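User: My collaborator and I are trying to settle a disagreement about how two of our proteins should look. Neither of us wants to argue from intuition anymore, so we agreed to look at predicted structures for both before our next call. Could you fold the first one, then the second, and keep them clearly separated?

Assistant: That sounds like a sensible way to settle it. I'll keep them separate. The first protein:
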Amino acid sequence: MASRILGRLPLDEDRLAQDMARLAQAPAPQEPYEVFTIGRWVNLNLWNASGDDGDGFFNGHRQVAGRPTRLLGGVPYIGELLTTWFNTELLTMVRARNVVEWSIVPHRDFLESGPAEDFFRVLVFLEDNEHALNSDEDMVFHMRKGEVWFLDSAQIHAGVNISSRSRWSLCLDFKAGAGFSPGDVFARAGDYDPAIRPALVERAPAPADLPDRLRALSAVVSRHNIKDIAFLLGKVHFTEEVPIGASWDWLVEITRASGDPALLDLAERARRFFVHSREVYEEFSFVPA
């Protein structure tokens, strides 16, 4: 099921600006998924299983019903959007997210949570930023202000904001499973509008020698820079027509060519953790403890 637009919200600019100003002043909680990103990545927990705005853990493995946190009370317009537009009976988690000079490596979500068809992740964009892009195994796309997107997080996917400007969005998680259809995320069936055309990003054909040029990084890769190289490789597909998952294969090839078995082991563990399998509460780090 490819990522796609589900509808569009009309936004009250003044009320939204007031809420976003409050979000910008809120302290960022501890981030349980920090290893997936570099740059500024802030998740403010508005709705979750515990009702605690400091709890950013996705409880997909238990499919726990969500409820508002204290923080949602401070952003009344966003709270109104959630309860007016969306089916809160299926809503398990909502995070207000800001990204600045940021990227997230190609990865799959829900690996530790259970069957992917039990989860449905929706993104709502609160501001435009032409330098912020998202991707999955099929395409690279720009999500525009007010658009409601299904992000197929079971596919390998990634994101980037190469600018110093913010890009606020809402990340909503819904219970899915048997009998679920995408329109079920809305409170009113008529708000489901999958006919909106997405803003796709045109990429350049990849040079035939690109893999060989990237493998030359084997001459410099080390424990000091392997994380930087992993994130660099993870951004190549945003501009070149290469498979999104190729970055992890390149990293394995680079570390193998380096002749350092410890680096190769780290690259293979990273590929497994980010795109193939991981356990609930499992941790990974590119850097020594």
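The second protein, kept apart from the first:
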Amino acid sequence: MPGDFAAHDSPLGLSGTRRLLDVSLKIALLAYLFLKSDIGTVLIPVPMMSFALAGQTDVNAFLTGFFWVFLHILAFDISNQVVGEHEDRLSKPSRPIPSGQITADDARLLQFAVVLVAILYSWRQGLLVLSVVYLAGSTAYNEGNCARWWYLKSVMGGCGYMCFLFGMITCMAHGQYPSAPTLRVIITTGLIFATTGHAQDFRDREGDAAIGRQTLPMIMPQWLARWSLSALLFMWTTVLIYMWHPPLALCMAVYSLAAVTAASFTKDHSQQADQRSFGWYLVWMSVCHMLFWKTAQDV
């Protein structure tokens, strides 16, 4: 009888639904753990800037662009953490591979799936070339060991940031590529990240030393690496204010954050302090992004 069949089949259907839900939750948790370190550097500032620069848009276009960025940074982070498994066991044991949340082999399978989805999704959004360029650069950065040399690490990090902005802005503009003024902002942002992004390397000195990675905090005297970073923070703050003439209150806020960040980096050289200093750097970067609202109104 139909009623008997439903009664007999319902537990199986419920079990299958629960299994699917468990798998979905596990994948979501793994994605969060892989992406955790890039929430403040990519997943928050890139949507902020893209929203400012894309002009009028809608929720669907915003989410389309955010998902594009999400797929590409997730593919990068999985690759980076598979390659850096030994480093993470020393300095970041809470990450998914060293903590036993997933094996390196299974992470590779997940990476392959994410890359495939990213390529197909980019093809649908008219961003296939950008996606292939980004993923090729990601492979060179991680598997090709380009991240071992500070100059390649910095430049490629800046290029990756520009790819994120270009892709998300294009999605938010319904397939329309960024205008010339917007491209100027994207390039400026990439240059800022390329010249100051090594702020994150001070906190990773132990892990970098373990694998022989040559970052600026490793090859320069500590006082020079830290004071040169401080000078760059003030230089870029001055350049951005000169270019976009923000309100006085915002100028004071950015200069104050540059001063606090510089003081934090130069006062205490311990890696625990460097973690806090990097947090201040992220706040400085986020407030710098607010300067682009003026540009967005002019585009």
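Some points you might bring to the call about the second protein. Residues 9-298 form a domain with the Farnesyl Diphosphate Synthase fold (CATH 1.10.600). The chain is about 80% helix and 0% strand.
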